[in-house]
Request: fold
Amino acid sequence: MSVTPRISARTVRLAGVACAATALTLGVAGTASACNISEFSAEASCTGEQGVITVVDKDASGTPATVTVFLGDKQIGSQDVKGTREGATVTFKEDWQPNATYRVHVKAGNLVDEDIKPNLTTPSKACATTTATPSPSSPAPSTSAPSESAKPTPSAPESTTPAAPAPSNSASPAGGSDNLAETGASSNTGLFAGIAAALVVAGGGVVFALRKRGTAKG
Reply:
């Protein structure tokens, strides 16, 4: 038996083993590089004052996938993504509330059809909200001191002296009896009346005496 056939048979066996090992290695590598749910992650954050939910796909095989976000039974949004080794990102605008739970579902052909685990829980602090500014139609109350014109002017004290009576233009009645009454001289009316009566009697006596004298002379 020659040496040459033995070497050839051994060479064939070694080549077969090498090929099988190579195929196995490629199969394992191919399985490892296939799209997998573990290559997806989700996070809730803020962009300025806007809340967002960000999903990152680090599938190095670049298998197209569809990412859908749910809040309970309500669908928030759905986007397509093609992963990369560095990570491809899709962003959903969502004004999420603190400590809310979202479900993120991934569908990638026949390889992946499941939710990212665990579910996404938002931070305990919401994104900042804009402070309302006062309306121009509602001016702020003025803090300036009141002007001098607004201060109350003290009124002049009321006089306690009775005003003098205005002079009357009407003619005074004869005898001045009204004026005496108005000036408080009504208490002397009896005296004046007595004097006047005496003068009348005296005058009558004088007239009677003169007449009698004239009769006697005639």
